[in-house]
Amino acid sequence: MGERVAVVTGAGSGLGRATAERLLAQGMRVAGWDISQDGLEWLSQHPSASTAAVDVTDPEQVGAATEQVRSAWGRVDCLVNSAGIFLVGPLAEVETSAVRALFDVNVLGTTLVTQALMPDLIASRGAVVNLSSTVALRATASNSHYAASKAAVAQLTRCWALELAPHGVRVNALAPGPTNTAIYTSAGIEPADVAALLADRAARIPMGRAGDPTEIALWVVRLIDDEWVTGHVIPVDGGMSIA
Ligand SMILES: NC(=O)c1ccc[n+]([C@@H]2O[C@H](COP(=O)([O-])OP(=O)(O)OC[C@H]3O[C@@H](n4cnc5c(N)ncnc54)[C@H](O)[C@@H]3O)[C@@H](O)[C@H]2O)c1
């Protein structure tokens, strides 16, 4: 049997990158996909990795990258859907284009990649790990559409788990609390405001701090390796969702 293969979207930054690093350290092959070619630079020279500049909202790009992995490695054992974008802003101000982009990347993108890799995951009786969020479980003001997109990811996770269980494929999600990554500045929030936002959230986290990407990656890998858990959305959030 060859080395196990993981496809990680959003591997150019944050939780996707931390997950790819951990999977490589465990001896898996990693296909890192990201819309940002620059973001994938760190991965491009790794002997057990391949990279592809993929916009997960584009079915043709997703299809081409899927074919690339199939012809190079002939199998896919797990998929980590970490490509995602954030949006902050009250209902009164939210722009149509921003809501569309949010659901395109977070919901449609997760769908297109999972759909493209389904035959491979069924063949390997593999695992999918999606990225939901604490805000999908607990209401917060000022990021309702982001929260709704992550609630959609949570429910897709449960429904796909039922659909794919007969094929031996497990589908779970993590619901991370606020974790220090580029997602906030990429959403157009000024660095000083990001610090304030994370400090504000940290004040509502029982463990008193934001998360580190490596702490989320640890759970992604657990969900890949576990063979009995499916259809769950697991909070990894310093206790935020129960406070
Ligand atoms: N950081 C947090 O606090 C947090 C908390 C809960 C959930 N999440 C979720 O975790 C996931 C990863 O977030 P992160 O914090 O690592 O963010 P990040 O911005 O650090 O990384 C996300 C990556 O996705 C890529 N991406 C964006 N749009 C894409 C597209 N259309 N096609 C392909 N790639 C695209 C970006 O280029 C980036 O490299 C997201 O789904 C996010 O919603 C993050």
Task: Describe the protein's architecture and organization.
The protein has 9 helices and 7 strands. The protein has helices spanning 14-25, 41-44, 59-73, 96-124, 134-137, 144-164, 183-186, 191-202, 213-225, and strands at 5-9, 29-34, 49-53, 78-81, 127-131, 170-176, 233-236. A 7-stranded parallel β-sheet has the order 3-2-1-4-5-6-7, with helices on both faces. It has a single domain (5-237), classed as NAD(P)-binding Rossmann-like Domain (Rossmann fold). Helices cover 47% and strands 15% of the residues. The protein is α/β, with parallel strands linked by helices and 243 residues long.
Strand content: 5-15%
> Compounds present?
nicotinamide-adenine-dinucleotide
CATH architecture name: 3-Layer(aba) Sandwich
**CATH homology group:** NAD(P)-binding Rossmann-like Domain
Structural class: alpha/beta
- Low-confidence stretches at least 5 residues in length (pLDDT < 50)? none
Largest sheet: 7 strands, parallel
Annotation, overall tally of beta strands: 7
End-to-end separation: 46 Å
Order of helices and strands: EHEHEHEHEHHEHHHE
Mean pLDDT: 96
| Helical content band | 40-55%
CATH class: Alpha Beta
Strand order of the largest sheet: 3-2-1-4-5-6-7
Q: Any idea of the CATH topology?
A: Rossmann fold
Number of helices, counting only DSSP H or I runs of 4 residues or more: 9
| Radius of gyration, CA atoms, in whole angstroms | 17 Å
Count of spatially separate domains? 1
What features would you highlight for this structure?
alpha/beta; binds nicotinamide-adenine-dinucleotide; globular; 7-stranded parallel β-sheet; 243 residues; 7 strands; Rossmann fold
